[in-house]
Amino acid sequence: MPLSTNEKQARSVSPRLSLVKKKDRVTRLKEAVQAATPGICTERALLWTEYFKDKANRTKHVYVQMAEALAHSQNNRSIAIHPGELIVGNYTSRRVGGLMFPELHGLVVMQDLFKFPTRETNPLEISRLNQVRLLSIAPFWATRMLAVKTCDSWLDAFSLVLNQLMGNYYIINEAAGISHIAPDYETLCRLGTDGIKAQASKLQKQSLMDADKWYFYESVKIAAEGLAAFGERYAQLAAEMGENELDEGRAAELKAVAEVCSRVPRKGAKTFREALQCCFFAQIAINNESLDNSVCPGRMDHYLYPYYEKDLKTGLLTREEAKELVGAFSVKMSEIVPVFSKYITRTHGGFFNGQIVNVGGTDKNGEDSTNELTMIFLEVMDELRMRQPNYTARVHKNSPKEYLDKVYGILSKGANSPSIYNDEVIVPVLKQNGVKIGDARNYTPVGCVEPVAQGVSFSSTDAALFNTAIILELALNQGRRLGRFAQIGAKTKPASQMTCIEDVQEAFEIQMFHGINRLLKDLQAIEIANAEHHPTPLSSMLLDGCLENGACSTRGGTRYNFSGIQCVGLVDVGDSLAAIKQAVFEDKKLSMEELVGHLKNNLSDDRWRHYLLNMPKFGNDDPFADIWTAYALDVFKAALDGKTSTRGGKYTVGVYSVTLHEYWGTVVSALPNGRRNGESLSNGMSPSNGQDRKGPTAVLNSMNRIDYSKTDNGVNFNIKFDANTVGSPAGCIAMKSIFSTYFKRGGMQAQINVLDPKVLIEARDNPEAYPHLLVRVSGYSAYFNDLTPAMKEEMIRRTSMGL
Amino acid sequence: MAILFDIQRFCIHDGPGVRTTLFFKGCPLRCQWCQNPESQNPKPEIAFYQEKCVGCFECLEACPHEAIVSLPDRRIDRGKCDACGLCAEVCTQDALRLVGKDWDAESLVEEIAADRDFFLDSGGGLTLSGGEPLLQGDFLLEFLSLAKSEGIHTNLETCGMAGYEVLSSLTSLLDLVYFDLKLMDSQEHAKYTGASNARILSNFSLLAGEFPAVQARMPVIPGVNDSAENIFQTAAFLRHNNKNSIHLLPYHNLGQSKLTRLDAGAEPFYIRDIPEDYLIRAREAFEKEDVHAIVYE
């Protein structure tokens, strides 16, 4: 029986302390979290409501309101310290729970209020009493929620909400709050909330003539004090529990917890443990302040290393103890889930809050910054393999071999994490957007894949997602959906008059600009509503620039401002244009009019569908196909170029789709690439629907034909390997080699998934989902889909046995 | 021109590093356990994937030779079919496929050079496989010369059944040769592969004498060639040729169901109970004879 990776790693660590016992703790914590039933916490919603129902509060400045409402909610909700915990704090009143934001999208989510416990996907427990309680606050917020405040009329608000639920053309996430930040936890750990509060007080004294500034500093002081008090609640609870604890060992642990929490976040961290605890308290509070999505601790191995190094040197901490603390912290990050309705889940599936922790990369001077803590984080992510945090790894041309071996090693064993980011591409991209080199080198991915300079940038990286595929549908039918009469887009040339590919391009470009302009008009109204009605003083005090400028991050106070707009269905459009060029204008197999006719019929004629599916496709190392995906990206970018948000930042281009490629796949008509309505669109930057037929090196060659200086909000490139191919040492080396080449040649990002037998079983049961899944057995050539049922069983058996 | 039935990129079991493997069509042997039976016939042929066919019979209209039949497990009348591929072109389900495509040397090199960056980083290159590449020796001479001028590492996987002069003419263009030794007993060899091993063994000895980078390989077929005696003899043969290592390839039944797709008359060869430790035992037997055995995953 071969050793599992976990066992190997456990054995490779020198057992200075009782390792077995220590390892048990994190495993026990993990098991407790995984055994807990996820549910909805109503406390934040009710306390928030309580605050705003008080008429005296409603006359206060909005900055003060937000800071006070958060402090009120944080310091009156229930808290708990669970058995065995070293890092403490609760996102919600439940072990694993989700928050409600009635002032943002909470009311929209409440359409599923009575279905949450019984729904099939991601059921959430909620008691009857709490359902009634939530229902009782709905009337109060119906006139006060952000969408209503955005719009001049009720009718507009209604259509805005509806559009966010059933958005066919775009989805504006800022309608539910902004978040998507990598806060400056380094400064918080160094200064503590008292330090930040002192800065705010000093600046406030200089701002007597400027009410907005004065109130902003006031709100920062309240937010800082609220956060400090939140930590102290745990100090008190731990002390009380320690006194009543019969187990001496645990009593000592609780005493230590109390000591840590009595220092942080108020005083700033002196030790590694205090720093971790400090970050986690802030992490909880920020998730409660704004949208609980993509609040990212970021480069923890980098900014926590000085604490680790010092503690190790002074003998306060061993490597094993540090690893245990990191494990305990990591498990804690899985205690939050998003509360989404069925409709929102359609577009934002996956049940995760996008809290990214990053490892690797460089320091501000460009020197490699990997260290022992990097290795500890990698070990923890491999051993835990939990839903959260979303772990990422940065690589650059001088990344040490030991680090790379570890990253690819755990990936080849099926960890499916971390995803990998290339500094050599991303740092210049940020720099080109005006981010100073030192800040750019300190970037971390945020949310899904978006590179953000940590602690200094308000990048609203998931401001909106845009349906690029539907733009092509409009372009092929004079600005109308196929088979419908409503004029949605601009009036462009009918297909019958398109005599060359340039005519198609022209229509596509016009529709793209028209669609993007519509999106930006709606988005900017929401930007203003966020600034006016939902400022975020706590987040802002942890983003550099806000204090100096005396302005909230929602009002452009941060050093850098961006808004990320995602291009969804990019590869489908590229492949469709390639198919039009080849089939209509080169091979002349059919006219534009005939093609559009087939699309209207949803490609019901199998012969034409088959013919179109066999046209050149992105991902097969075919420049003819690949240039069209590059072209579609250019058009998307051009439509956003030169536009500025109300926060004074540029709109950046992202190519990822969360789960919108599936939902919009049900919306968009059949396309010239052979995809029928109902079939998924391409996932992010990956070849569409598994149309990559030539294996991973061909995919990487195609991926390297894209100029990633244009995708400044990041791309998601998913690539799957079967465990037979890359699970062996030789396979792992080969995998590492092809990705080093891809990155050396300017690749931006990769998410590598190594398929376990379960996936083969899934591929057996849903062949359409994996049309070109490669299986490699020495000297044997086949796609999984092409195997007979008996051969598929054989392959599953082999994979299960690790052959 | 040469005929190939597949080109597979990102291969990691056919030599060092990341490789592109070229599967040449046509083979002088008929090994019963053959896992790529579509490699045997040196001419193009139509494969029928029965489970994919939806019975639309678009192929019937497309075929100019009336070679389409409508039996449940058979679509092609092999007597009439000349493998023009028109049926495969119209098949919307990919149930009919043309196996075998002609390549000229230049296009083939161009196709392979697309992965040169990956070869360079990983120490990989191209691998000639099949089928038996040496059946298309003249083509290889031209093709390998071009590939070498592009700086691509070359490996030949061979069953060894060819005129020695063909092999000898290519050695200056090859970096590595993977040479199969299947069975030492000539009669057994003939029984399982359709030909005596005399020429194969003599080719191995000649090649080992003039070309150092030849690596012996053995597909280990449980109950066929993993006997103590065959391993003992193989080891002795290797030592005699100053070779001290062998690569052991695992057996699997995956090739067998390909047979019906080609209506190949061969009896399916299916080993029901593959012993779990047969490769380990084979390795130990070789090691005992001072031959270093490397087991493939």
From TrEMBL, chain A:
Region (Disordered) location: 675-696
Biased composition (Polar residues): 679-690
Domain Glycine radical: 683-803
GO cellular component, one term: cytosol
UniProt-listed PROSITE patterns: GLY_RADICAL_2, PFL
PFL domain sequence ranges: 24-676
SUPFAM superfamilies per the UniProt record, alphabetical: PFL-like glycyl radical enzymes (SSF51998)
Gene3D superfamilies listed in its UniProt record: 3.20.70.20
Keywords linked to the UniProt accession: Lyase, Organic radical
PANTHER family: DEHYDRATASE YBIW-RELATED (PTHR43641:SF2), FORMATE ACETYLTRANSFERASE 3-RELATED (PTHR43641)
Entry protein name: Glycerol dehydratase, cobalamin-independent, large subunit
From TrEMBL, chain B:
Domain Radical SAM core: 13-289
Listed cofactors: [4Fe-4S] cluster
Top-level lineage group: Bacteria
Keyword Iron-sulfur: yes
Coiled-coil ranges from the UniProt annotation: none
One Pfam short name: Fer4_12
Gene Ontology molecular function: 4 iron, 4 sulfur cluster binding; lyase activity; metal ion binding; oxidoreductase activity
Domain 4Fe-4S ferredoxin-type: 44-74, 75-101
Keywords: 4Fe-4S, Iron, Iron-sulfur, Lyase, Metal-binding, Oxidoreductase, Pyruvate, S-adenosyl-L-methionine
Family affiliation: Belongs to the organic radical-activating enzymes family.
Protein name listed in UniProt: Pyruvate formate lyase activating enzyme
Organism field: Desulfatibacillum alkenivorans DSM 16219
Organism placement in taxonomy: Bacteria, Pseudomonadati, Thermodesulfobacteriota, Desulfobacteria, Desulfobacterales
